[in-house]
TrEMBL record:
Protein name, entry field: Oxoglutarate/iron-dependent dioxygenase
Source domain of life: Eukaryota
Record's cofactor remark: Binds 1 Fe(2+) ion per subunit.
A GO molecular function held by the record: broad specificity oxidative DNA demethylase activity
Entry keywords, A to Z: Dioxygenase, Iron, Metal-binding, Oxidoreductase
Statement: the UniProt record of this protein carries the keyword Iron: yes
């Protein structure tokens, strides 16, 4: 179905609806978030959730989070930007998604170079690669996590009703999975109740709250962990982030991986 060279495949192109991360000008009064203590220094802490799974809390400054939002907004509104992925049966994922580096889609996985609208993934921004590498290095101070060089970044935006069922990230190359090369997950905006466990059974899963600026790394012995998002906590994003970025209500999540 897809041509091996760079020409766009001869399929009926389905345009995607533009999706903006930013609320329109003039909506400032309706910003609802959480006031943080005034403190210009980042108080980062960490927790090893299980072998190979490290939670770096409050790791990314508000300034850097704003830059991440602006980068995702810039590319998210262009070709290869946000769309709502669907399944064969016609149902849609409860989030908007885009990819940097290489396209991934729940139906076509990493096989298709082009999306159904004919677009390719924009290149992965250097700053995101650097942030992922720095967070892996920091996680390695606390636990056994392999190093990796990210070449894919999947960006999800959840509105406050968004969620994601328990799943494993198993579409990367067999080499990457065999070596347990980590997934680096960055959270920006409203907090998420994040589930992880040994099976798809939500009742048996553990839960951790991922807040704006947190980074979660799962690699090594945890690379195959089932994980998902149970719920987004409305109005939990830092007010300063919302004021500086105009991020719409909801949560932005970036997962960096090596194919
Ligand atoms: O939003 C999250 O925290 C997880 C996202 C995720 O699991 C994925 O994109 O594969
Ligand atoms: Fe995942």
């Amino acid at each position: 179905m897809y041509e091996p060279n760079n020409t766009i495949p001869a399929i009926d192109l389905i345009p995607t609806e533009p999706f903006s991360l930013i609320v329109p000008n003039g909506s400032e009064n309706s910003l609802c978030g959480t006031k943080m203590k005034k403190n210009n220094t980042l108080k980062t802490s960490y927790a090893v959730l299980r072998p190979g799974m490290v939670h770096l809390k409050n790791y990314i400054s508000v300034t850097d989070q704003v830059e991440i939002i602006n980068t995702c907004q810039e590319f998210g509104m262009g070709p290869g930007g946000f769309y709502q992925p669907g399944f064969n049966g016609g149902s849609k994922l409860n989030l908007h998604m885009m990819c940097f580096g290489r396209n991934w889609d729940p139906q076509t996985k990493y096989v298709a170079r082009y999306r159904c609208d004919g677009s390719q993934a924009p290149p992965i921004p250097d700053k995101l690669v650097a942030l992922a590498k720095a967070s892996i290095e920091d996680s390695q101070r606390h636990d056994n996590v392999p190093s990796m060089h990210p070449d894919i970044c999947i960006v999800n935006f959840y509105t406050n009703t968004g969620r994601l069922g328990l799943h494993q990230d198993r579409d990367e190359s067999s080499n990457s999975l065999r070596k347990g090369l980590p997934v680096v997950s960055i959270s920006v905006g409203d907090s998420a109740q994040f589930l992880y466990g040994h099976s798809r059974d939500m009742r048996k899963a553990n839960e951790v709250l991922l807040k704006s600026g947190d980074v979660l790394i799962f690699g090594g012995k945890s690379r195959d962990i089932y994980h998902g998002v149970k719920a987004i906590i409305p109005n939990s994003a830092p007010l300063s982030l919302l004021k500086q970025s105009k991020l719409r209500p909801g949560r932005l999540n970036l997962t960096l991986r090596q194919y």
